[in-house]
C-alpha cells in the first residue's frame, strides 16, 4: 500500500486543519472541553497572491511555504501535526463492493486489484488508500469500500509545503469531504435534525464556486462553476481605478467610496444569486429532483451583504450562511468579531481540524 499516513486516518492528538485555496491559507485548531463540547482554539488566515496556487496546483512553492510560516506564527499554535486536503479534481474516488470478513491484508490486495481498473495511470505513480464504509445495501454479506487515489506528486506537494513550514503532515483529505464534514454539524441543527433534508452547499471561492447537494451524508450531485469573489475585485478595479491589491484590501476592510453598494456591490450580488439559481436548475434538469430544502453558502464571498436574501428571492428556497463554528465554545485566543466576519471562509479548514475527533 502506498499511503501518506492515510487519506482516512484517525488522529486523536492535537491537529491543525490547514486549507490552501487560490486566494489564501486558512488554519483552524479545535479542542474539546470537559463536557465534550468542541472548542475553537485558533483560527487564522493569510492571503496568497494570484497565480501562486492555480487549480489546486502549487505554482510558487517558496512563496506559499513562506505564507504558511507567517500563518503559523500569527496563529500562535505550537501544534505540529497537520491535516491538509487536495481539490476533488486531483483525487479519484470510487466506491466498490467487496466480500465481508476479509482481513486488512486481504482487503489491501483486493483494493489494489480493483483500483487498477479505475485509475488511468500506474499504481507506482499514485498514493492509494481505502476505508470500509459499511455493509453493502445491495448485496448481503458484502461491504462497501471507498477507494481514494491521487498522483504522488500532488500529495508530495502538500507534504513538502507542510514540512517547509515546520509541520508534520499526518492526513491528506479531499477538500469536498472536509467541507461536508463541517457542514454536517450545521445540517444537524436544521428541523428534524436535518434527517432526509436536501441541502445545497455552495462554496464561493475566488475563481470557482463548488456546489454539493447532500442528503443524509450522501452526495446526490456535485458541480463546479467558474464564478467567484475575484470578479467583484475586478469590478472595483474597473470602477475606481485601484490596483488589484488595493481593491482586494479595500473590499476586505470595507473602505470603499459611498456609491460602491449601489453601483458595484448590489449588481454583483444579484448576478451571484442568478448563478446559484442557474446551478440549481442544472441539478433539477439532470436528476429526478425538483427542489432543495435549504441552501447553505460558504467561502470568502458568502458573507456579502444582501446575498442570502438575493439567493432566497432568486430561488424561493431558504438560504443561510454556513458558520462552521456555530455552537462551539470560543477559546480565549480567538478574536471573536473578526472570526464571525470571516467564519464562512473556514468551512474546509474546520472540517480538516475535526478529523482529530473522528473515531
UniProtKB/TrEMBL annotation:
Per the UniProt record, the source organism is Ramlibacter pinisoli
Please state the gene responsible for encoding this protein: pilM
**What's the protein here called?**
Type IV pilus assembly protein PilM
InterPro entries linked to this entry: ATPase_NBD (IPR043129), FtsA/MreB (IPR050696), PilM (IPR005883)
Give the highest taxon in the source lineage: Bacteria
Amino acid at each position: 500500500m502506498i499511503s501518506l499516513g492515510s487519506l482516512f486516518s484517525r488522529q486523536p492528538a492535537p491537529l491543525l486543519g490547514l486549507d490552501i485555496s487560490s486566494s489564501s491559507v486558512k488554519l483552524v485548531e479545535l479542542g474539546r472541553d470537559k463536557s465534550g463540547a468542541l472548542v475553537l482554539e485558533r483560527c487564522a488566515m493569510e492571503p496568497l497572491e494570484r497565480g501562486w496556487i492555480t487549480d489546486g496546483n502549487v505554482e510558487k512553492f517558496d512563496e506559499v511555504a513562506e505564507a504558511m510560516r507567517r500563518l503559523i506564527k500569527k496563529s500562535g499554535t505550537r501544534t505540529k501535526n497537520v491535516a491538509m486536503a487536495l481539490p476533488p479534481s486531483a483525487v479519484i474516488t470510487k466506491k466498490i463492493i467487496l466480500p465481508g470478513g476479509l482481513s486488512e491484508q486481504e482487503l489491501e490486495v483486493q483494493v489494489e486489484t480493483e483500483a487498477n481498473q479505475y485509475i488511468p495511470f500506474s499504481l507506482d505513480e499514485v498514493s492509494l488508500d481505502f476505508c470500509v464504509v459499511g455493509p453493502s445495501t445491495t448485496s448481503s454479506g458484502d461491504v462497501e469500500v471507498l477507494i481514494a487515489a491521487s498522483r504522488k506528486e500532488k500529495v508530495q506537494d502538500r507534504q513538502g509545503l507542510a514540512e517547509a513550514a515546520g509541520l508534520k503532515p499526518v492526513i491528506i483529505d479531499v477538500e469536498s469531504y472536509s467541507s461536508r464534514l463541517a457542514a454536517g454539524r450545521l445540517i444537524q441543527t436544521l428541523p428534524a435534525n436535518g434527517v432526509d433534508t436536501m441541502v445545497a452547499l455552495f462554496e464561493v471561492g475566488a475563481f470557482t464556486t463548488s456546489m454539493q447537494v447532500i442528503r443524509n451524508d450522501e452526495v446526490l450531485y456535485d458541480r463546479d462553476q467558474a464564478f467567484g469573489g475575484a470578479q467583484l475585485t475586478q469590478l472595483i478595479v474597473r470602477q475606481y481605478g485601484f490596483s488589484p491589491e488595493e481593491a482586494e484590501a479595500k473590499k476586505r476592510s470595507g473602505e470603499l467610496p459611498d456609491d460602491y453598494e449601489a453601483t458595484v456591490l448590489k449588481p454583483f450580488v444579484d448576478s451571484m444569486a442568478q448563478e446559484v439559481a442557474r446551478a440549481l436548475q442544472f441539478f433539477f434538469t439532470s436528476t429526478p429532483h425538483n427542489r432543495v430544502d435549504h441552501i447553505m453558502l460558504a467561502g470568502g464571498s458568502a458573507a456579502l451583504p444582501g446575498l442570502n436574501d438575493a439567493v432566497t428571492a432568486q430561488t424561493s428556497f431558504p438560504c443561510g450562511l454556513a458558520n462552521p463554528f456555530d455552537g462551539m465554545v470560543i477559546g480565549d485566543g480567538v478574536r471573536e468579531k473578526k472570526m464571525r466576519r470571516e467564519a464562512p471562509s473556514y468551512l474546509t479548514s474546520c472540517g480538516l481540524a475535526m478529523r482529530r475527533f473522528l473515531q
